[in-house]
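Lecture notes, part 5. Sequence design as translation. It can be helpful to think of inverse folding as translation between two languages: the language of shapes and the language of residues. The source text, in structure tokens, appears below.
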């Protein structure tokens, strides 16, 4: 039986491609059908159409409103046929909204796994994403063999909402590291140190990180085609600040990178890869 897949943005396309490459039959729905066909995927006309053909459906959408739309739109997923299906939700939600999704899925007797993705296009294509799951343990155990086809490190946090909160916390590191690496690179250039040499040195010095390893070539070539966009990191850091506010907890180190990525969005660069924040420092 095919696996259903909804959402063919940069990450979704990579994950769905990986599933096909490891032998799964993938049937997709995408808001723009022509784009999905152009990428070589089999496509249905509506989310509801997947329910008669697939027992397991992945969601890989930008945010909670996008998921809500897929559920509630005309011929969306919320219907009698959804009962008993399995939904693996790779989307990054707002920490409050994902609890509402859990509630809806329980009402429809759906096996739902909150499963945000840590990583972007390259690790997705290689099947080495980091995945954090929340939901019922028996659902997690049932779908884990499928998760292992796209992820290398897989963690389970049973309490609803925990995986989403951990994704937001992780992206504080991600955004902060990227902003710091970008500023260090620009400063080295201002000191007449060649950019590639500076990145080599940072890579074995204080800048050693998965972020630098992943974004080094983009910084060198200044090819900022998106793997993980400024829009996405800006949205996630905003949700993280909401989380801290709800806990009445200060969040000292999130404010500056969030505003830097907001600046990139304001400059019309929201769809560029988040490594393009380098341009802020280079041009200042």
């Amino acid at each position: 039986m095919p696996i259903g897949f909804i959402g063919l943005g940069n990450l979704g396309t990579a994950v769905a491609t990986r599933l096909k490459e490891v032998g799964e039959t993938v049937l997709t729905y995408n808001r723009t059908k022509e784009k999905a066909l152009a990428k070589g995927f089999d496509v249905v006309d509506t989310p509801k159409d997947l329910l008669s053909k697939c027992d397991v459906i992945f969601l890989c959408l930008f945010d909670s409103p996008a998921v809500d739309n897929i559920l509630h739109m005309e011929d969306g997923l919320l219907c009698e046929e959804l009962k008993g299906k399995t939904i693996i939700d790779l989307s990054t939600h707002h920490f409050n909204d994902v609890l509402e999704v859990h509630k809806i899925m329980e009402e429809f007797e759906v096996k739902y796994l909150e499963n945000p993705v840590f990583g972007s296009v390259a690790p997705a294509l290689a099947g080495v994403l980091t995945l954090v799951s929340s939901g019922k343990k028996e659902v997690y155990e049932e779908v884990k063999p499928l998760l292992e086809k796209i992820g290398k490190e897989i963690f389970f946090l049973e309490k609803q909402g925990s995986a989403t909160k951990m994704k937001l916390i992780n992206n504080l590191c991600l955004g902060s590291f990227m902003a710091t690496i970008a500023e260090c690179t620009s400063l080295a250039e201002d000191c007449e140190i060649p950019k590639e040499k500076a990145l080599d040195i940072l890579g074995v010095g204080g800048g050693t990180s998965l972020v630098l390893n992943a974004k080094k070539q983009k910084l060198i070539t200044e090819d900022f085609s998106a793997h993980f966009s400024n829009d996405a990191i800006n949205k996630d850091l905003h949700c993280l600040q909401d989380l801290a506010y709800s806990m009445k907890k200060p969040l000292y180190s999130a404010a500056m990178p969030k505003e830097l990525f907001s600046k990139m969005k304001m400059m019309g660069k929201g769809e560029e890869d988040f490594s393009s924040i380098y341009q802020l420092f280079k041009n200042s």
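The translated text above is only one of many valid answers, since several sequences can fold into similar shapes. The chain has two domains: 3-159, 164-282.
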